[in-house]
Design a protein that fits this description.
278 residues, Cobalt-precorrin-4 Transmethylase, domain 1, 4-stranded parallel β-sheet, 9 helices, 41% helix, 19% strand, binds iron/sulfur cluster
């Protein structure tokens, strides 16, 4: 059985940048370091940071004086950023620049009088942060959900960075038929699109796909959905320990795709175990 790893599997540029920032701060800060929420959606990477003494807090109210606060790749809600500044904490802003873009657009478009629509998951940390920057009406539409009737004439649509392009297109199209003015700003991260294209291609070429990454990672779950739609023998795992030999019975080639927050060493662990199964 051959094992084929997608070219884009593993940390994206934004995650690598933030993880490097945390490691650097942990080594040199000389004071307690916390991350505001799990730094990335990968339990194995978060555990490694905890070994370096980096704690995770859920709110600035939990942080003690003299602590360095690192903001995660998904960003933070505006009021928490303001609270950190007001309390005088040293803040290392690890928000991915591609996440800052929808934050800035939510603010700018709402100031311009648009009802802001975000295509994404309202419970995801990134989307909560983006909503907090809107200064007027803001509605989140989950991919696959019905498009709601909105009272405003001017609507602007943006997307969670990990949104699937077809979902964004569907919602923009539906709104365009109902409102006088619809402005679409594609805030999907290019890394996400490239990774999804790669996963699609991989799923067409292999007999089974293993998608590696946190079960709480939106972009990893999307990759699994994309691959499963093409190759029904698709499995989403966090580590090699979850792999079952019977999943790969009769397979000539197994493909590995991985989310943007999946460390290389976790991907490699899965590849090694698959080779052993072979
Ligand atoms: S997937 Fe894109 S938006 Fe998300 S952290 Fe990576 S580079 Fe940034």
């Amino acid at each position: 059985m051959d094992v084929k790893i997608a070219r884009t599997a593993g940390f994206c540029w934004g995650v690598r940048r933030t993880v490097d920032q945390v490691m650097d701060v942990a080594d040199h800060a000389g004071r307690p370091v916390v991350t505001l929420g799990p730094i990335i959606h990968n339990p194995q990477a978060v555990a490694r940071m905890q070994e370096k003494g980096v704690r995770t807090v859920n709110a600035i109210a939990e942080v003690e004086a003299g602590t360095t606060v690192v903001v995660r790749t998904h960003g933070a809600v505006k009021s928490e950023m303001e609270a950190a500044k007001a309390r005088g904490f040293e803040v290392v802003d690890g928000t991915c620049p591609y996440v800052k873009y929808p934050q800035a657009m939510a603010q700018r478009l709402s100031r311009q009088g648009y009802h802001v629509v975000i295509v994404g998951d309202a419970n995801h940390a990134e989307v909560k942060g983006v909503i907090s920057y809107a200064e007027g009406p803001c509605t989140v539409v989950r991919p696959g959900a019905p498009v709601p009737d909105l009272p405003d004439k001017k609507v602007a649509v943006i997307a969670q960075t990990t949104c699937i392009g077809a979902d964004f297109e569907r919602i923009v199209g539906a709104l365009a038929l109902r409102h006088k003015e619809v402005r679409a700003v594609n805030t999907i991260c290019s890394d996400t699109e490239e990774r999804q294209d790669d996963a699609r291609q991989l799923a067409r070429e292999v007999d089974a796909v293993v998608v590696v990454g946190g079960k709480n990672s939106a972009n990893t779950r999307h990759l699994a959905e994309i691959c499963r739609a093409i190759q029904p023998r698709t499995w989403h795992v966090e580590t090699e320990e979850e792999l079952r030999p019977e999943w790969f019975r009769g397979c000539g080639t197994v493909g590995i795709s991985a989310g943007a927050s999946t460390p290389d060493w976790v991907v490699e662990g899965v590849a090694q175990r698959l080779r052993k199964l072979a």
